[in-house]
Specification:
The complex is a heterodimer of chains A (252) and B (316).
Chain A (H helix, E strand, L loop, with lengths): L1 E5 L2 E3 L21 E3 L1 H17 L2 E7 L4 H11 L3 E6 L6 H13 L5 E5 L10 H9 L3 E11 L2 E7 L5 E7 L2 E5 L11 H10 L2 E5 L10 E6 L8 E3 L3 H14 L4
Helix pairs in contact in A: 2-5, 3-4
Chain B lengths: L3 E5 L2 E2 L2 E2 L1 H17 L2 E8 L14 E6 L8 H15 L3 E5 L4 H11 L4 E8 L6 E5 L4 E6 L6 E4 L16 E5 L8 E7 L13 E5 L9 H11 L2 E4 L1 H5 L20 E5 L5 H7 L4 E6 L6 H4 L2 E4 L2 H10 L2
Parallel strand pairs in B: 1-4, 1-6, 4-5, 5-11, 6-10, 7-10, 13-14, 13-15, 15-16, 16-17
Antiparallel strand pairs in B: 2-3, 7-8, 8-9
Helix pairs in contact in B: 2-3, 4-8
The chains are: A alpha/beta (252), B alpha/beta (316).
The complex binds flavin-adenine dinucleotide and adenosine monophosphate.
């Protein structure tokens, strides 16, 4: 079984986000990036399948800031092959998905497992778009994958903790929300070793020829604190004030 | 392109989900302002009685097909794509829900339409769509262009009551050439009952990733006990297996409406907000003064929860 896991770096939301001078995107110069948390789950689910029944796992990413590090980390965790797709400049998810589809088309694959979504994504979740460019079916919001022969059992989460079970044939694209297990941890030393030993293959994106079709008019911060009355002071002061509020409202 | 606004109806186990009524309410405003027709698109098998709840729409397009008896991502993508191709609506509204996340992108690619996701606002003339991105920390206004678009709407963005109109509009039946499917529905797995039903609690002390480790949970549990409530949490806490799924608040967890929701170290991502924004009193504690949770809280405390919890506990 061949599993492809597209991974992507996203801005770390713990850091302050600033808007660029055009007012249309983040100021990316000082952004701290980290792996999209759902990609960590997608990779984990792929590695679980590999542990259970053997699989060849390929981590693939579009070229971008800090991406080598993320690919090497995937290798350190157990990915067998690393691919970097070059020649995509734009930020449109349609273009990214088309580039990814062009390269994946030339690979052998049974499952393509992306993260379910990313925080910076305005024009669509890649799994669905990628699946349609590849001409294969897809399921999003997946919380568990099991393989028996050529049949794949997929758990998809609805609201309220309800789960729908589907049975599907390969090839299949999945947007992974959560792996069955907590994603494995890999020590930095092992990533460093992978960055010496593992090889990143570069492949060209090819003809993109798709258009997201919409344009960004502006980016802005939502009204912060619009709702909340902020309570200042030390933790002690704040706690006293909260007690006052709770007493006033008859809660305590 | 026609002047229709499509709303894809989401239903499960015979119930139409609230997001559908939210979109119908908003769609009605857009249709009214632009002289368009609001069309509810209903897919199912023997589900035509649901049309009686879709009175907000000017028309229902109903597809009855045994392959649509249960929700199926592949069947829905094919059917909705075909209906969009046949009718060329100027806007397709889909929930940014588990089901909608399967459908919107597929319809966009199949019909070569732009797709704008995570919509929390839409201008009534349809010219601007506001997306909530970066975990709720940024808004982005997009212009869809003139030739139709697919928009996925975050649940809770619009009032559902505006779209809840009894009485069936004209129902037009349509067929969709779904063809062979390689994905088959097997079963619905109901969530296991938990030790505590968080939807029935009046006081919830809710922890997020800011709690850092399961070793720190007892301190939050002690606070919950002192307040006479229960502990709930955001999704990462469940994904880390520190608390049971039954404690999760939000889009894929439970919707709660307690008298007090005390959010500790929760950033306020749209998927979390969906589950708790209607609580009577929301108090949020977060070290980040820009955390989106403060947009929804009644009272905000910028503080390290490891200092705040003991301070509050000791006063109770
Ligand atoms: C399809 C789908 C469904 C989802 N469903 C849900 C759902 O049902 N429920 C849900 O919650 N999420 C859901 N999510 C996930 C959601 O997108 C967010 O990832 C999640 O809500 C973030 O949880 P969090 O706020 O605990 O973590 P983070 O976003 O990491 O926030 C942690 C916060 O803690 C603060 N903090 C850190 N240290 C401290 C400290 N010492 N003291 C005080 N504050 C501190 C930080 O400033 C930060 O604001 C879903 C996602 C998808 C894609
Ligand atoms: N530039 C990219 N390179 C690799 N994978 C990507 C890229 N963009 C999106 N993906 C994949 O698609 C998932 C969802 O991201 P998005 O489409 O931005 O919502 C990510 O978690 C990745 O798995």
């Amino acid at each position: 079984m061949n599993i492809i896991v597209p991974i992507k770096q996203v801005p770390d939301l713990v850091e302050e986000l600033e808007i660029n001078s055009a007012g249309t995107d983040l100021d990316r110069e000082w952004l701290k990036m980290k792996l999209n948390e759902f990609d960590d789950h997608a990779l984990e689910e792929a590695l679980l399948l590999k542990d259970e029944q053997g699989a060849n796992v390929t981590a693939i990413a579009l070229d971008g800031d800090d991406i080598d590090k993320a690919l090497f980390a995937a290798a350190a965790k157990g990915a067998d092959r690393l691919i970097k797709v070059t020649g995509v400049a734009g930020t449109s998810t349609h273009e990214a998905a088309k580039a990814m589809a062009n390269v994946i088309q030339g690979l052998e694959y049974d499952l393509v497992m992306t993260g379910v979504q990313a925080v910076d994504d305005r024009d669509g979740q890649m799994a669905v778009l990628l699946a349609h460019y590849l001409g294969i079916p897809h399921v999003s919001v997946v919380t568990g994958v099991q393989v028996a022969g050529s049949s794949v059992t997929v758990h998809k989460e609805y609201g309220g903790g309800m789960v729908a079970e589907f049975e599907a044939a390969t090839p299949l694209a999945l947007g992974i929300q959560a792996a069955r297990e907590t994603p494995r941890y890999v020590p930095v030393a092992k990533v460093r070793r992978a960055s010496r030993d593992a090889n990143i293959e570069e492949m060209a994106a090819g003809d993109l020829g798709v258009d997201a079709g919409s344009t960004v008019a502006k980016m802005y911060k939502p009204e912060t604190g619009a709702g909340a009355e902020m309570i200042d002071g030390s933790a002690e002061d704040q706690a006293s004030k909260i007690i006052e509020i709770l007493t006033q409202k008859g809660i305590k | 392109m026609s002047n229709q606004i499509f709303v894809i109806v989401e239903h499960l186990k015979g119930n139409i989900e609230d997001i559908t009524f939210e979109m119908l309410g908003k769609g009605k405003e857009i249709a009214g302002a632009t002289g368009g027709e609001l069309v509810a698109v209903l897919l199912g098998s023997g589900a035509d009685d649901l049309a009686g709840q879709l009175g907000a729409a000017g028309k229902v397009i109903y597809v009855d097909d045994p392959q649509l008896a249960e929700y199926n991502p592949q069947a829905y993508c094919k059917a909705v794509s075909a209906l969009v191709a046949a009718n060329q609506p100027k806007m397709v509204l889909v929930g940014n829900t588990s089901m909608g996340m399967d459908i919107a992108g597929g319809v966009s690619v199949a019909n070569n339409l732009p797709f704008i996701a995570y919509a929390s606002g839409i201008a009534n003339d349809g010219s601007t769509v506001t997306s909530s991105l970066y975990g709720g920390k940024m808004n982005v206004d997009s212009s869809p262009g003139g030739d139709g678009c697919v928009v996925s709407v975050i649940a809770g963005s619009f009032p559902a009551d505006a779209g809840r109109v009894e009485g069936s509009p004209a129902v037009e039946t349509a067929s969709a050439d779904i063809g062979d499917l390689s994905i088959r529905f097997k079963q619905l797995i109901e969530p296991e009952g938990g030790d505590v039903d968080i939807t029935a609690q009046e006081i919830l002390v809710s922890v997020g990733r800011g709690i850092q480790s399961d070793e720190n949970l007892p301190m939050a549990e002690e606070l919950a006990a002192k307040l006479g409530g229960a502990i709930s949490c955001s999704r990462p806490i469940v994904d880390s297996k520190w608390l049971a799924k039954t404690r999760q608040v939000g889009k894929s967890g439970l919707k709660v409406k307690p008298k007090l929701y005390l959010a500790l170290g929760i950033s306020g991502a749209p998927e979390h907000i969906e589950g708790m924004k209607d609580a009577d009193l929301i108090i949020a504690v977060n070290t980040d003064p820009k955390a989106p949770i403060f947009d929804y809280a009644h009272y905000g405390v910028v503080q390290d929860l490891f200092d705040f919890i003991p301070a509050l506990s000791s006063k109770l």
